[in-house]
Amino acid sequence: MNIIRKPLARLALGLTLLSPVAVQAQDADTVLATVGGEEITLGHLIAVASSLPTQFQQLADDRLYSGLLEQMIRQVALAQSMGDSLSKELELSLESQRWALMANSIIDGAIEAAVTEESVQALYDAEFGNIEPEKEFNASHILVETEEEAQALVTELEGGADFAELARARSVGPSGPNGGELGWFGPGMMVAPFEMAVIGMEPGTVSEPVETQFGWHVIRLNDIRDSAAQPLEEVRGRLEERLSEEAAQEVVDSLVAATEITRSEAEIDPALIRDTSLLD
After folding, report:
1. In terms of DSSP bridges, do strands 15-17 and 31-35 run parallel, antiparallel, or are they unpaired?
2. pLDDT below 50 — which residues of the chain?
3. pTM above 0.85, yes or no
4. Measured distance CA(140)–CA(59) in Å, rounded
């Protein structure tokens, strides 16, 4: 929405603005301007302001107020120039917009009632409260092409060689430059032979050579921990979105089901939806 600021020739529009003293009441019915006999109230501006995109919501109050008032003055003046002779297309468009605004208001009210701190907490508890902790592993590895190379690495490590230095010098895997570190991972995140080897290890130990489809691995298990459920704040957005979708669907389904609806049996060519000449 464009907020227009350039002044109009107010006398030509039949426009009067109330003085600052006259608007001290500051309720929704306070008249801010009269354009051709039609009143623009503080309530009109509040309704428009509440639906503006985020970038306009961030404007300073005085700038937003003056911009919206000037824009609404222009809109009313332009609308009045049409008189009562609205085209069929405009009449139908206005009726459709009215339906949409009213429907959206019902849905917004249902969502507001459904998405509460209590409902978000209840959904979080239902989804995450009974999750059993799983083991997570932190490991490093050195990947080579043959079992002989892997066994030689094990021998060097048993002799006191530094694991990270060997990984940087000999590993052909992408983690080699990082000393072979793989970070934390849980069940199912690694190929089966690698995972089975890690599960059977103790922190601080080094595995015998392990073969996967990628080659031969020498693995060092750095640490083990129990996984924790994601904190509420990390998943709040997803939970609120789910509650909103469910509330919207429920109110739509229930009200449509409770309404008598008769669908026409007329055969309509779907291509007619693009034929604007029918509105002439």
Report:
1. antiparallel
2. 1-15, 19-21, 23
3. no
4. 52
